[in-house]
Structures are given as C-alpha cells and as structure tokens.
Amino acid sequence: MDILTLFVVVPVLTAIALLFTKDLKQARMTTMIGMLIEFGMAINLIFAYFKERAVNTDIMVFRQDMMWFESFNIHYAIGVDGISVLMIVLTATVVLAGVFISWMIDDMPKEFFITLVILAAGVYGFFISLDLFTMFVFYEIAVIPMYLLIGIWGSGPREYAAMKLTLMLMGASALLLVGILGIYYNSTADGGALTFNILEISQVNIPFEAQKLFFPLTFIGFAVIGALFPFHTWSPDGHASAPTAVSMLHAGVLMKLGGYGIFRVAMYLLPEGTNYWSTFFIVLSVIGVIYGALAAIKQTDLKYINAYSSVSHLGMVIFALLMLNKTAWTGAILQSLSHGFMTALFFALIGMIYGRTHTRDATKMGGMLKVIPFISLIYVVAGLASLGLPGMSGFVAEMNIFAGAFQHTDTFHRVMSILVVSAIVVTAVYILRVVGMMLMGPVTNEEYHSLKDATWFERVGIYMLLIPVVGIGVAPLWLSNMILDSIKPFIEGVL
Amino acid sequence: MTNFLLMRNEIILLVLILAMLILEVTTKPQHKKGLINVAIGLFLLHTILGFFPNEAGELFGGSFRTNGLIHFFKNVLNVGVLIILLQSADWLRDKVAVYNKIPEFFMLLFSSLLGMNYMISSGDFLMFYIGLELSTLPLVALVAYNSFSEKATEAAIKLILSAALASAVSLFGISMLYATGGSIFFEEIATNLQTSNLAILGMVFFFSGVAFKISLAPFHFWTADVYEGAPIGITSYLSVISKGAAVFVLMSILFTVLPALTEVWKNVVYVVAIATMFVGNLFALRQQNMKRFLAYSSIAQAGFMLMGIINAEELGIATVVFFLLVYVFSNLGAFGVVQAISSETGKENMDDYTGLYRTNPKLALTLLLALFSLAGIPPLAGFFGKFFLYAAAASKGYYLLVFLAVVNVTISLYYYLLPVRAMFLRKSEDAIPYFKNKVMMRAGLVLAVAGILVLGLYSPLYNYIVELSAGIL
Description:
The complex is a heterodimer. By secondary structure, chain A is mainly α.
C-alpha cells in the first residue's frame, strides 16, 4: 500500500482495534500506539517528500489514481505537495497530543477514542485528496464526528453547541457540494471529459459566468469552517463546549480545512471568480480579523477568548489568501501551521487549568504562576506566540502576510492592510490582560495552593506542541522555502 | 413458443401464495406458529432464485415485459420484503398468532408484492392498472391487521379512500392518454402521442394518481396517519417497497411512454420535487412518534428521488434505481430498530429512546447508521445515492433545484440528529433496559446495516446498474 493511503488506513484500523478494548487503559494505549505510528509516518513523510522532490518536479508527488465510479469519472486520486505534507504533520502532532491530553477521560473512553480517530482519518483523507469527490467525502467524515464528540463529552450547553456547529458546517458543505458539481459540469469547457480531478480541472478554462456563480458557493463552503465573518458563530460556542482534545483538534486542525480548501479548490480552479469576488471577501475577512480581536477583549471565559482569537487569526489566513501573491500566501500557510500548533497548545493548557480549578473565568483566578508554574509559564509562551513575538511562529507568519499585503499599492488594499495590522495591537491587549489577571498577582483562592502541576502525560502533550511553535519561529527558512516551492504552480494558476 | 419463464418471478410468488393457502387448511391450529418460519424460508428461497439472471422479452403481445433492469429491481423489492419479514417475525409470533391469522398475513403481503411485480413489468396501461390495484387492496387489509386497534382501522379507511381516489384519478388520466395516443400499449402511445392540451391533462392526472402512491406533496396527507396506525412491518413495506415500486413505474412511464411531453412533465416534477422536500422536512421537525417521524422523512426522500427523474435520461434511471436500492436498506434499518423496540416494550416515542446507547448500544448504533445514511452522510450508502441524484439534476443545469435540495438536507440533518441526541447525548434513569433480539430480527438488522455500509463504497454495484440502464431509452 502506498504511503499516503496508509494515513487513512491506520486510523481506521485503530478504530477497529478499539472496538475490542475493554477499559480506559486498553483504549488509550491502543489509540496512542495507532497515533504514534501515524506521527512517525508523518515525520517520515517530510524526509520522503524532500527526497522525492529532488528528482520529481510535478506539482503533486506520491500520486496514486484508482477508478472508483466510472460513469461519473470519480477517482480515488491522491497526492501531496509541501503544503499537504505540512498539514499532515500538523494533524499528526495535534492528534497525538490530544490523545495524551485525554489520558484520563472517564466517560465512555472507547467510544471517545473511536470517534476521535475517525475524525482524524477524515482530516488525513482530506489533505491527500486530489479528487473533488473524494475530498468532499473525507471533509464530511471529518465534520460529523464533532457532533458526538461535543454532544456526549462536552460541557455547558453542549447539545446546543453541537447542533449549531453541525448544522452550520454541514450547511456549508451543502453549498460546497453545489459548487463542486458546478465545477464538475463545467470541466468540459475545453472539450475534454468530465472530471473531478483538481489538476485536470485547473487546465480547463471554465467560462467566466460559471466562475462568477460557483466561486462564492465554493468559497463560502470552505470559509465557514475557516470561521469567516459572519459565518463564524458556530466556532466560539463549539469550542467552549467541546472537551479539551476536541477543542484542540478542531481549532488546530479542522479549521485549517477551510483555508486549505479555499486555495486548493476555490481559488485554484476558479481564478477569474476569485478576482471578481475578491474585494467583497477581503472586506469580510478584515471585519473578521478586527471583530474577532475586539470580541476576545470582552470575554472572560478562557475558551471564548481563544475561540474569538481563532476567528481573528484565521480571518488573517483568508485575508492573506485573497492578497494573491506569493509572500502573502506563504504567510497564510505559515499562519495556518502556527495557529494550529499554538491554539492546540492553548486549548490543552486551558483544559488543564479547568481540570484543576473547575473554572474558566479568568477574572476568578489569580496567581496561577505561583501554584502551577509549569502550566502558567507555557501559557505565557503560547500567548506571546499568539501576539506575534519575534522568535515565535506567529511572528514569521504575520510578517509574511503583512509584507505580502503591502505589495498592493492601491488605496483599498492599503486601507485594509493597515486595518489588519492594527488588529495585532488588540491581540496584545487581550493576551496580556489574561496573563496579568490570571497568572500574576496574589493567589485568590486558598484551595489553589493544593493544586498539582502538570502530570507526565500532560507534559508530553505540551512539549509536542511547544517544540513546533518555537521551532517555526527560530528556523522558518526551510519551511517557507518548502511552502514557496509548492505555492508557485498554484499562484501562477490564479494570476 | 412463448417463453413463460420470463414471468418466473411472478409464477414462483403465486406458488408461494397458493402454498400458504394449502398450509393454512392443512396445518393444525397449534402448529400455525411454525408457518412463520416456513413462509420466511420459502421467501428466502424465492429471493435467492431471483438472483439467477433472466432474459429480456415480452409476453401477451407486449402487455408483460421484462429486462435486466426490471429484473434487478424485482430483486431489490424481494430483498426488501425479506428484511421486512425477518423484522416482523417476532411481532407475528407474539401478537398475531393469538388470533390465528398467520398464513393470511403472508398471502396478503405476497399478493401485494405480486401486484408490484406486474406493475413494474407492465407493457400497457391495463396491466399497469391491474398491478396497481393488486398491490394496493391487500395492503389495506394488512394496515388494518390489528383489527382491535381504532388507529389501525382508521388508517385502513384513510388508505383505501385515498387509494380509490388515486386510482380513479390516474384512470381518468389514462383514458385521456388513450384518447390522444390511440392505444393502451406503451410503445404505441410513445410513437403516436403528440403534444396537445388533452395529452398534457392526461399526463397530469396520471401523475397525480401515482403521486398519491408515492405520497408526493400535495398528495401526502394520508401518509403520516396511515404509517402511524399500521403495524410497523406494514409501515416499512408502505414506505419502502410500495413507494419504491411506484417511483420506478412512474419513472419508466414518464421516460418511455411520454417522451413527447418531456418538457411539460419536467416542470411538474420540478415543482412537486421542491414542494415534497420542503413539506416532508418541515413537518418532520416536530414529530415525536417515531413512525410519524419516519413517515415525513420518507416523504422528503421521495422529493429527492424526483431529482433523478428530472434528468430524463439514462443517467436519471441509474441514479434513481441506485438511490431506491440504498433507500430500501437505510429505511429498513431505521424501521427495524423501531420495530424491535416496539415489539419488546411497546414504546414508539422519541423520548423513550433517551439513553438508549448506554443500555442497548447495538440497536442505538444501528439506528444512528440508518439515520445518517438517510441524511446522506459519507461514507454511508445514502450519501452516494443522494450525490448521484444531485449530479443527475445538475447535469441538466438544475442548479437551483440542487441548491434547494441541499438546503433541505441541512434541515433534515437537524431532525435526524434528534433521535441521535436522545440516544447518545442524554442519559436517563428509565432508559429502555437491555434486551436481546431474536435471531430473525438480528438477521434483518444485520442485513440492513451491511447494505448501509457497503452499497455506497462498493462501486461495481453502481456500475452494474449503469450498465443495466444503458439502452433502455
């Protein structure tokens, strides 16, 4: 079996193995082994990719193509470029960290891990797909387990949050479906056969009228999961109610499906539609960036702060993609990665704090640095990465985005870019405010003195996420080269 | 020499009916329970025999015709009925045997199925009408099978009144088509028929009559009450077999008999499809009784089936037949669980399902899969069925219809998640306690689940249907 299909097969096998486990210990060991294999494969994939890239200059490498439904010309077509490889690594890391963070899950552990790995299988499948149909199938497989994960193991208004999230994301995928069919039936525009294959469609000049119609459907279809304003409302509720590992996975990985799909499908296949609609969506994304940041200031619940912060950060990804140049796109991918690791780390830490203090209200806590120094320290580091401190991943990403954005010299783009840059200041406000309120100062509650710092499995999870956050910040060059290589054919397709 | 083996399926079914009649007379009352197993065994044999290929051809000067696709669809109906019988065995044993009404049940059910077979094999309107009536009348008796229940009696009366009205309406339409086409034979009508107001009127009346049977909006009013009143096995028969056969027949008549009116009936189908999806889905939102819930859900599903019909080409045939196949398994999975719980505890409300996963995980999981398949979530079979229907509609440029359909899918997802929420998300002190299903019921559920899991992913099946539908038009 080829090395990409294994990424889907291993989680499925893990899920099947989990069916035969009896208790929490067996379930978590099984999941951990499965996800460790997956993680190892992801690391191996980076090296294999570089090796292959040296001799192979195709857009996508490790390609496999199998006919699935002949009459519709649906294939199981897979392949990766540098961006998908990085996304797979991100997924593998966050999932494995999520398993460690869920080490002590007590309610129906077997079912929890099964649902979690099925979700992971969907995400992997999405990132390797080159066929729109296959991609869509995996997308929905990745979304629907969220309902059970939030609904069963969540907290607070979990039923409401789960239902809202599922309906909004599935509604978005419904739009996406119309868009995909529209692209499919226009893939004959140059006289070729109907096809779902992304690389083949990219060679076709789809008529402008069709691009105009189907671009917004496809774009919004992906942008909802990328939390574009005003379709972001599922995200704060969903994150707040989800159990820790699910928040991590959702903010860290699932929301990246949005940006990935936007540039891989919507923009790449419908370039004229992109140009036609870009102004409109740039405005929306800028509103999202600023609105998310301002909303985060007003929140006191840690998870809500992070959820709105994600809206702001991912708005920046969509903004960068719409800037349509190499620098901004590199920034967008870097931001996706950086936000993925950093947010997952944040949600993991919030989960640990909540598990100890049983509150997520930042105003009720104080002096955490004195009682749980390790967790608090990492929280500060994650916060600094989030506000874009040089040396951390966030800085590299945002630097690229702004550099790309300022390459546009017209008034509209300038104004929008300045607005986005100004959001960084707001980010600093809400991050530092929480750090000051919750971590510094006197210990507000006597009981906090008896709190224990992170356990070994929590530390493993934390380090797994912390290393990439710092790593990307310190040595970004090889990454941005890898991304730049892969972006080239795409950006040339769009321009 | 006329090859009566073309009617193999019908002949065997007739033999089964007669065998039940003889067994009814010769079996001692205390042994009648054993007839359940005998009948199901015989029907299993019939189903297996059906898988042997049959030739294409005509009988009675073209009144009866069969081809690969028709034969395939008869097999689909057989498998569906087999699952229904397996799922109903417990109910028959526990509730019906007391009144000594076992053989009649099978006779009536098989007669109705025989009618369906003739209906989908019909080559002229006479055979069509005989098949239609033969399939409906036994059903009325079956709906009222629990004759001590007021609801069942009411349901039966509602069914027979609307069925009578429906066949009157479609007969009226057929007479107009006869007037303009000059024949009752499908092939001759197809060549003779010209677009005229009378022909269009005839088509509309015919369509309305069949629409009653499929319960398309606005002809759906009988559905929920009848589904609720009837025994669950019969409800699933109505919603799966009866509806499936009617959709198949409507499609083949629209495609092969009325191609002259294609542009007209496309508009009718377009409007009715949208109305049916919205009515079914919006009414399903607030249902508490699981049977009514599934009734409205199956109304909405019929709206989706029309999306394949609107394609008016071979692609449409293949997608509709594939969707029907998938729908049989998905819906029977859902009805099977409702049946199992109802015959064990008598509970039929959604609230009763609260906390079911913690007490009866397998049943809850089966219902989850069935509902997700109905909602069209990959990788379950329902997703592929729906996607192909969208593709069929979109290939003719009906993007607005596809858009409205996917809006409906999102609405439907809400109510399909309600039982899931009750079963998985909520806990209950008085959840239905653990019980073990009998072998037959388990076999029925396992068959349905296997279909839900495999049919979509296994592409050769769809390719086979595509092959069968090629050259039909």
